[in-house]
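Example record

Each entry pairs one chain with its bound ligand, zinc ion.
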Amino acid sequence: MTNCLFCKIIAGEIPTNKIYEDDKVFAFGDINPQAPVHILIIPKKHISSLDDVTAEDKDLLGYIQIVASKLAKEKNLTDGYRVVNNCGVDGGQTVAHIHYHLLGGRTFGWPPG
Ligand code: 5GP
Ligand code: ZN
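Structure tokens for the complex follow.
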């Protein structure tokens, strides 16, 4: 998708703090971190939101969780962490390319605001 911020980041058209990349996913530091560790994990395939996934995306979505777990280990988040997907207006989604926030390094409250 040509006019998508995160597709441009994947393509290297917008510089970012890349943390991980393989043939399926890309991970980078959030520009406005909400915790000592705040990584965005995105599929290279453009999917607008969790509302737009199909059964075809099953392996990809599962794989993102494996990457989240791996990155959490690499960042030494031994006391735990949070993985968040914001979907749509009510979910607080601001970028229309599905992404998972990996947050760690502090204790989070519940319920979320
Ligand atoms: P959302 O609110 O859609 O769940 O999360 C979007 C996230 O993308 C926000 O946490 C925001 O700080 C981050 N973000 C927005 N623009 C950029 C950017 O250009 N670079 C990086 N690294 N993060 C961005
Ligand atoms: Zn995109």
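Strands lie at 18-21, 25-29, 37-43, 81-84, 100-104.
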